[in-house]
Amino acid sequence: MRQQPVIAVVGPTAAGKSDLAVDLALRLGGECVNADSMQLYRGMDIGTAKLTPAEQRGVPHHLLDIWDVTVTASVAEYQRLARELFAKIDVPVLVGGSGLYVRAAIDDLEFPGTDPVIRARLEEELAERGPAPLYERLRELDPAAAAAILPSNGRRVVRALEVIEHSGRPFSATMPSYDAVYPSVQIGLEVPRPVLDERIELRVGRMWAAGLVGEVRELLGQGLAEGRTAGRALGYAQVIRFLAGEWSEEQAFAETVRATRRFARRQESWFRRDPRVRWLPYDAPDLLERSLAHIAEPGAA
């Protein structure tokens, strides 16, 4: 086990995580490790607010642009790659808002295998009957897992039922815990909700102005719509519907803002449940100094 802690910068989208991570890496001689599931995809730059080389300010950034947009995301694969990097980097600064990816990197989290036959049967049932009956089955088989999954999240319900049938174990036995594999210091950026809502709308506006629609159009030629993960990403899914003629551009913009705000609330709820996260105001004038002070505290990891 590594002795130096992994530094994690977490929180909702549009909170300023990437900039703080670069500041910390520059001050500590560290390197950034991406924990944003959509920034793993090549070509998804504008819509994921991926830092440009200039914004990276010379700090090495890892686990960006590693998958084609047709690849289905694998948290297990991400976990393997992140931990390989932790073994090589003296001061890794993990940064991103994908809570499961952060936990996969630093905590004792296992990923059971898959069974394509079981998965296909459950997905067919989901398409025919909707998530409600599958969710009721999950409540009977594994109440703890059902309590942690939204009834409307059919994809997650299918995965839980697949694991139960394939492994013979409760899905809840594989769900995230706070048992760390690596010592870590986690800094969360706290943004008042009205401010965050405004920042999200401004960010979406900047993405549109920077050419998000053109980026999506280009990625469609590379199979974006067929990608089970990338094609559902915030902004990308909405622009796909605009380009398909289902929505107006104004509707796609508004839906992107709305969906991103909803997603930010889920992110905050996820990270708030982790008692190890030290929350700091996103706009504190001494944010870097306060973050460094927390990292240096005895027992912080």
From TrEMBL:
Sequence positions that bind ATP: 11-18
Q: Where does substrate bind?
A: 13-18
Query: Gene3D superfamilies from the entry?
Result: 1.10.20.140, P-loop containing nucleotide triphosphate hydrolases (3.40.50.300)
Sorted UniProt keywords? ATP-binding, Magnesium, Nucleotide-binding, Transferase, tRNA processing
Q: Which cofactor does it need?
A: Mg(2+)
Q: Quaternary structure?
A: Monomer.
Query: What protein does this entry describe?
Result: tRNA dimethylallyltransferase
Q: Which organism is it from?
A: Nonomuraea spiralis
